[in-house]
Amino acid sequence: MDDSNSFVVVANRLPVDMSVHPDGTYSISPSPGGLVTGLSPVLEKHRGCWVGWPGTVDVAPEPFRTETGVLLHPVVLTANDFEGFYEGFSNATLWPLFHDLIVTPTYNTEWWQAFREVNLKFAQAVSEVSAHGATVWVQDYQLLLVPGILRQMRPDLKIGFFLHIPFPSPDLFRQLPWREEIVRGMLGADLLGFHLVQNAENFLALTQQVAGAAGSHVGQPNTLNVSGGALVREVGAHVTTADGRRVGVGAFPISIDVEAFERASTSKVSELLTTLGSPDTVFLGVDRLDYTKGILQRLLAFEELLESGALDPEKAVFLQVATPSRERIEHYRVSRSQVEEAVGRINGRFGRMGHPVVHYLHRSLSKADLQVLYAVADVMLVTPFKDGMNLVAKEFVANHRDGSGALVLSEFAGAAVELTGAYLCNPFDVESIKRQMVAAVHDLEHNPASARSRMITNSEQVYTHDVNVWANSFLTCLADAGEDS
Ligand code: ADQ
């Protein structure tokens, strides 16, 4: 067995997209998304192994090493697995439930069966590749059952689990017909990590309510410990399972590889500004096209500000980049058509020939191109209805280390706990988004010292709490976790 398999990450997706060509050959390209952004630097540092699905059904390449030294171990999923496990249970049941029912979750027994079977496949793949006593780090809501299955297959492993999305209040979670199995699956880990203390507290409260899950009792739930508004270096709480294992529970807010987001090349920035007609104010949104992200609401806020004359269409532009996401799911299709209809309407109303007021791209961009956009933007709009963390907000902040620009941020994004210099808005209230957009523009123009001090506060937080701090604090806690109580 390969030595590098003493550190194994397992996530639904590999950090690559694979496409199969008609002649049977395939090509591979990087895949965007928060989880990949957070984990890639960690895996590169540990020269570890990443187990996951390559994004194509029924076929997968042999394990291979990336240019940066990470061993990728593909898991084969069938078209049925993809539908029931991924589109169904993961993204039409768990995703909306864990994001506080922004759309109504579907509870479907066949999807649940597929979810169990595919979690078993992932656990088997991990079990095959992991060295004796290896550390296995299981990622996210698609693999909630993997810790429990792995614990039975391979009791020698040290198992950590990190949830990248919010953990809902127990009252919502209890809707799930398979709630006990899910909690039991999670409790197979030695350490459970969440972004926020609130998420960890929701889980701890749940283990008391769904006690049948493991006959578990909660230890010291009130000692969850926060320093600097966010970081927990020690596991402050634990759950003792019926079989006497101690499962650590803590909050570890994810972050970014700050060096990758230093300022972009100035020539490209001024080139883009000229292309945009040298506007006074550039607003920017960058998201996966997901109904949780509040893209439509921020476009409506922009439209209403143009309508009322608070913004001048000759002087303000809005750039929105939306990565295609989960396009076969109905709610995602509806979201896309609403966003695109709004873009067309706003340009029809306020643009002129050769001068749209909203520039919209429905595609993935390279990190270098994203950096140019972050640098061009005066006001970044991050307005999700609910978000585990939101790395886009942190990327923008890292790009504005000099204190330029302003961030309008939803109070329901996990990042709001840390980025205290942001202009916080309530995305359910378009007036609130408008107010904060206007306040940000006003400060940038008339109160630059205050705007600068806000952004410096944000960037200091991100530069002192980068992705290495996140990974090291989780992995240090994991190394100490799992002893019998
Ligand atoms: P996401 O919902 O994907 O992540 P986010 O945290 O903002 O959301 O991460 C998106 C990542 O994708 C960023 O690194 C961004 O640069 C990249 N990206 C977005 N649009 C892009 C585009 N058009 N082209 C290229 N790259 C693009 C989930 C959770 C979040 C949590 C992360 C990490 O939903 O709440 O912050 O995981 O835990």
UniProtKB/TrEMBL annotation:
Stored InterPro entries: Glyco_trans_20
Keyword set, alphabetical order: Glycosyltransferase, Transferase
UniProt GO MF annotations: alpha,alpha-trehalose-phosphate synthase (GDP-forming) activity; alpha,alpha-trehalose-phosphate synthase (UDP-forming) activity; trehalose-phosphatase activity
Keyword check for Transferase: yes
Reactions this protein catalyses: TDP-alpha-D-glucose + D-glucose 6-phosphate = 5-methyl-UDP + alpha,alpha-trehalose 6-phosphate + H(+); GDP-alpha-D-glucose + D-glucose 6-phosphate = alpha,alpha-trehalose 6-phosphate + GDP + H(+); CDP-alpha-D-glucose + D-glucose 6-phosphate = alpha,alpha-trehalose 6-phosphate + CDP + H(+); ADP-alpha-D-glucose + D-glucose 6-phosphate = alpha,alpha-trehalose 6-phosphate + ADP + H(+)
Cellular component, GO annotation: cytosol
PANTHER family found in the cross-reference section: BCDNA.GH08860, TREHALOSE-6-PHOSPHATE SYNTHASE
Protein name as annotated: alpha,alpha-trehalose-phosphate synthase (ADP-forming)
Taxonomic placement: Bacteria, Bacillati, Actinomycetota, Actinomycetes, Mycobacteriales
Originating gene: otsA
